[in-house]
Specification:
The chain is mostly helical and 119 residues long. The protein has one domain. It contains 3 helices and no strands. Helix 1 packs antiparallel against helix 2 and helix 2 packs antiparallel against helix 3. The radius of gyration is 21 Å and the shape is elongated.
Length: 119
């Protein structure tokens, strides 16, 4: 959990600087840095998190499954693997898409604002 949360918490420090009123150009630069950190978080850190979590749950289940019959053990592992597959192939991409859409919308708005200020 800590491996996942440390980079995640560092993202918020980009937007909560001590300066209370950043100009739009500075804020746009902060949003671009946030997007880069978010991409790193969504790829590398999330992959590591899922791998370690899967291994941990697999090892935890091993103790309980070893006491079950082979049929119930297979059913238990099949349900667990199915749940991980749903999280990995459905929920994770949906969440990433939603986060990227929000950030991209902000980036477009601030780029428009910067372009208007330049003209």
């Amino acid at each position: 959990m800590i491996i996942f949360l440390l980079p995640y918490n560092k993202q918020f420090s980009l937007l909560s600087k001590t300066k209370t009123e950043p100009n739009s150009k500075e804020y746009l630069q902060q949003l671009i840095k946030l997007k880069e950190k978010q991409t790193f978080q969504q790829t590398t850190m999330l992959n590591i998190y899922f791998i370690i979590l899967s291994l941990g749950i697999g090892l935890y289940l091993f103790e309980h499954v070893s006491r079950m019959t082979i049929t119930w053990g297979i059913i238990t592992y099949a349900i667990t693997i199915l749940w991980f597959a749903i999280n990995w192939f459905y929920l994770r991409p949906k969440t990433i898409t939603k986060q990227n859409a929000k950030l991209n919308k902000l980036l477009v708005e601030f780029e428009k604002l910067n372009n208007q200020m330049i003209e």
